[in-house]
Amino acid sequence: MTPNLRTALIFGGFISLIGAAFYPIYFRPLMRLEDYLTESDL
Predict the structure, then answer these.
(1) Cα torsion at 7, 9, 15, 19 (round to 10°)?
(2) What is the SS3 string spanning the chain?
(3) Where would you find the membrane-spanning parts of this chain (predicted)?
(4) With b meaning 16 or more CB within 10 Å and e meaning fewer, what string describes 24-40?
(5) pLDDT tens per residue, range 14-24
(6) Separation CA 19–CA 24 (nearest Å)
(7) What does the domain layout of the chain look like in residue ranges?
(8) Are 13 and 20 in contact (CB under 8 A)?
(9) Do 29 and 36 meet the contact criterion of CB atoms below 8 Å apart?
C-alpha cells in the first residue's frame, strides 16, 4: 500500500466518522422538521 493511499484512507475514515456523528444531531432534524416542530410544541 502506498503512503498516499494509506493517508487518504485514514483521512477518509476520519471524515466519515465525523459525518456519522453529526448526521443524527444536525442533518436528520433538518430533513424531518415537521416531526421535531410538533414534538417541541408540547
Answers:
(1) 180
(2) CCHHHHHHHHHHHHHHHHHHHHHHHHHHHHHCHHHHHHHHCC
(3) 7-27
(4) eeeeeeeeeeeeeeeee
(5) 999 998 998 88
(6) 9
(7) 3-40
(8) no
(9) yes
